[in-house]
Amino acid sequence: MCDDKKLQFTCRECGTHELGYQKYTKCMTPVSLQGNGHTEYGSSVIDETDYLCDDEGFVCLNCQAPLEHAGYLIKTEKELIDYLTMDPQVREEKEQASMSATMES
């Protein structure tokens, strides 16, 4: 980072500064069928290595809005820092250009 100024995320939807990271992972729960017709569920096991790549990225912890720029989800720390350090006017121009391109297609 170029200076010691703390970066701050602000959600475009709700205005809070609560940033999170969302990733959908595989979760397996053992199931045991009991003789009396009941089903018993064991402890779930989450496999952090098995996840959906397309749905991961930074989100607002308050309203769950995905952090996007120019039509793309921000998924990596580098993308996040680039986004947060970008000049707000340049950021807005890129957003407008992306929206225009989307509407034309």
What does this entry look like structurally?
- Helix content is 25%, strand content 28%.
- The protein is of the alpha+beta class and 105 residues long.
- Among the domains are: 24-56, no CATH class; 67-105, no CATH class.
- The strands form four sheets. It has a two-stranded antiparallel ribbon. A two-stranded antiparallel ribbon has the order 2-5. A two-stranded antiparallel sheet has the order 3-4.
- Helix coverage percent: 10-25%
Class from helix and strand fractions: alpha+beta
Side by side, the strands of the main sheet go 1-6
Overall mean pLDDT stands at 85
Count of helical regions: 2
- Report the count of strand segments: 8
Estimated share of beta-strand residues: 25-35%
Q: What's the helix-strand series?
A: EEEEEEEEHH
Query: How large is the radius of gyration?
Result: 20 Å
Topology:
Elements: E1 19-22, E2 25-28, E3 31-33, E4 39-41, E5 45-51, E6 57-60, E7 68-69, E8 72-73, H1 77-85, H2 88-104
Antiparallel strand pairs: 1-6, 2-5, 3-4, 7-8
